[in-house]
Design a protein that fits this description.
By secondary structure, the protein is an all-alpha fold. The chain has a single domain, classed as Amino acid/polyamine transporter I (Up-down Bundle), CATH 1.20.1740. It contains 21 helices and 2 strands. It has a two-stranded antiparallel sheet with strand order 1-2. A hairpin with a 5-residue loop joins strand 1 and strand 2. Helix 8 runs antiparallel to helix 9. The longest helix is centred in the middle third of the chain and has 35 residues.
């Protein structure tokens, strides 16, 4: 394991190094320019599309509704990165990490919209009659790069067991252990059973559950975070000011965690954790958006805009503000991850704060397990064929128990979790490379699709 982690560290330093972060943000900037700043042009339109069509049936091909696809995608993106990931970014990169997280999110909105749009444009049905789409199908059908498509599917398949399953199961178990003292193994077994009951019903069952679960868990957590931030409302301006100033200048040497804060760390941690949270540029969420019943690819692309806005600009920012305004970032510099976020909530809400964060962490992680199962299945079907589906479901359930209780069983919970995060981080970064290549190669097709959408929208052919 030491040798594996040593190799992983080298690869991680490459895939999450300066050039990769520049490629991620740079692709978002490039697409923003050539598509006419869609995150601003479509800002109010995306709210009208998302909330104005709830319950209405659209024409077009697909399996689930656009909102159900959004809920399933949000179930995957709104996860431990919103709580533990944000806290880790602030701990290692300082307040400036929040600024760079938001910068990456603004341009990530366009990246996610582009991914979703192309996924719908080049989707197809598998041998079992299920709609499939995503980067592998885009590269295969539109870019004639089957080898690159296969690599993306392989990275996605392997990453799903880490970031989408084991890490989330561990975070769910840790959440209930921190809040209620429930042993990790018991939580793992319960989560495995609940997950089995959902994924056995396929995409429709997954989307049905996430459509109800995601809005509830998001509102539940957001209300709690707002209560923490509002109680320190006099520090909100200071928090944002520090975020901007530390994003461009190194603070003087100070005791505790601040001693390690630098501009480079703020940029790297902020962008990396932002991408880790909203997955813009990784190519994961388009795999479920491609199944939506929709009449134009760009219409579903607006749900991609909303996804990143909700995940990072709303939820991640509230987590960061709760930590910074409560004073926990400098007051308890030894804390990181979920424990840092937990301290911020407890400082204001006491035992209620513990419950909100513990339950929120558990729900975020559980929903991610459900959403990422579909990504794993989509990648697996592309590589192996539809026969892999029942085998994958059994493997998925087993990895949940292993992820939740593996650290306890091995006697090194901290080391086990660290290794899980590091391996997942690397595989996530590897997914981004072929995905960004696909976006850049097909940027001309994206311009054509956006122009066609605008033309039909203004003519009244498409109604929003």
């Amino acid at each position: 394991m030491e040798k594996v982690m040593e190799i992983n560290g080298i690869i991680n330093g490459i895939v999450w190094g300066p050039w990769m972060l520049a490629l991620l943000v740079g692709t978002g900037v490039y697409l923003t320019v050539i598509l006419g700043v869609p995150q601003l042009r479509y800002f109010f339109l995306m709210f009208k599309e998302v909330f104005g069509n709830l319950g209405s049936k659209k024409e077009g091909e697909g399996t689930i509704s656009s909102f159900a696809a959004l809920s399933t995608a949000l179930a995957s993106t709104v996860g431990t990165g919103n709580i533990a990931g944000v806290a880790t970014a602030l701990h290692l990169g300082g307040p400036g990490a929040l600024f760079w997280m938001l910068v990456s999110a603004v341009f990530g909105m366009t990246t996610k919209m582009a991914e979703v749009t192309l996924a719908v444009r080049f989707r197809e049905k598998d041998e079992a009659g299920n709609w499939r789409g995503g980067t592998m199908y885009i590269l295969d059908k539109a870019a004639n790069a089957k080898w690159l498509a296969w690599l993306f599917a392989l990275f996605g398949f392997l990453a799903s067991f880490g970031i989408g399953c084991a890490v989330q199961a561990n975070s769910t178990a840790e959440g209930f252990n921190l809040g209620f003292g429930i042993p990790n193994l018991y939580t793992g077994i319960i989560v495995a059973v609940l997950t089995a009951l959902v994924i056995i019903g396929g995409l429709k069952r997954i989307s049905d559950v996430t459509t109800y679960l995601v809005p509830f868990m998001a509102i539940f957590y957001v209300v709690g975070a707002i209560m923490v931030v509002v109680s320190h409302s006099d520090q909100i301006g200071v928090a944002f000011s520090n975020s901007v100033s530390y994003a461009f200048s190194d603070p003087m040497a100070m005791p505790g965690a601040i001693a390690g804060w630098t501009v480079r760390a703020a940029i790297q941690r902020g962008i990396a954790r932002g991408v880790f949270s909203n997955e813009a540029g990784l190519g994961s969420a388009p795999m479920v958006h491609a199944t939506a019943v929709v009449d134009h690819p760009v219409r579903q692309g607006m749900y991609g805009l909303f996804e990143v806005f909700t995940d990072t600009i709303v939820i991640c920012t509230l987590t960061a503000l709760a930590i910074m305004t409560s004073g926990m970032l400098t007051g308890q510099p030894e804390l990181t991850g979920a424990k840092l976020s937990l301290s911020a909530f407890e400082s204001v809400l006491g035992g209620t704060g513990t419950m909100i964060l513990s339950v929120g962490l558990a729900l975020f992680a559980f929903s991610t397990i459900l959403g990422w199962y579909w990504y794993s299945e989509t990648c697996g079907v592309y590589i192996f064929g539809t026969w892999i589906t029942p085998v994958l479901k059994v493997l998925w359930i087993g990895v949940i128990v292993l992820g939740a209780a593996g650290g306890v069983l091995l006697g090194d919970a901290a080391g086990f979790l660290t290794n899980l995060w590091d391996l997942s981080d690397t595989l996530n970064g590897l997914m981004a490379v072929p995905n960004l290549v696909a976006l850049l190669i097909l940027s001309g097709e994206l311009r054509r699709l956006v122009a066609d959408f605008d033309k039909k929208r203004h003519s009244g052919e498409l109604k929003i």
